[in-house]
Amino acid sequence: MVADNKDGATNQSADASNSILIRPFVQDDLETVKDLFTSYYEWLNLDLKFQDYQAEFSNLPGKYASDRGGSLLLAFACLQGQTLEPVGCLAMRRLNITGDIQSSIRNHLETLGVKQSSPVNEATKCCELKRFFVTPSARGIKIGNSLIMATLQEAKKQGYEYAFLDTLVDRMQGACTLYERFGFQQSMPYYQTPLADQTFFYVKRL
């Protein structure tokens, strides 16, 4: 189920029954990733300037590169015929938590009863899941489930202790259900966002 590749990423899995393949990004995938990110951005229909999205897009894989503590997984599926086509992606990056945000998360983890192997502080290894997207034509065949499972495996392999993510309340109810199924619990906000009143924040101890 797991195989190495030339970029050092380590998650590759296939589901023969559904003809689904999950594998890490390689440089030849750059245009495919840009197409998926563009579809994600258009589907989201939000101004992401506050996340510096355009710079992220222009420098892919950037902070999602494996040598920077990140991960970028792609999903492929046979939707028509026997040809695998790109149908989804999920990225992960290192997350630095400091100051008041760090304290809020630590207190919230205690409130939730999340068992801590060590106190949450500046040395705690945390990651964030980003750019989770499955094309509309490929939803309903557990591609999102496979992407999250593989990304969490990679996070554990890299030694992360906590995984964080955010999602829009009104647009991503299905995603919220999926996150909670994987053990994510709602947390305090871990960064400043103009969309705070529309956003759920989640945390999971790995």
TrEMBL record:
This is Acyl-CoA N-acyltransferase. One of its GO terms (molecular function) is acyltransferase activity, transferring groups other than amino-acyl groups. It holds the Pfam family Acetyltransf_1. Keywords: Acyltransferase, Transferase. Signal peptide: none annotated. The lineage of its organism: Eukaryota, Fungi, Dikarya, Basidiomycota, Ustilaginomycotina. The keyword Transferase applies. InterPro entries: Acetyltransferase_Enz, Acyl_CoA_acyltransferase, GNAT_dom. Residues 20-206 form the N-acetyltransferase domain. It comes from the Eukaryota.
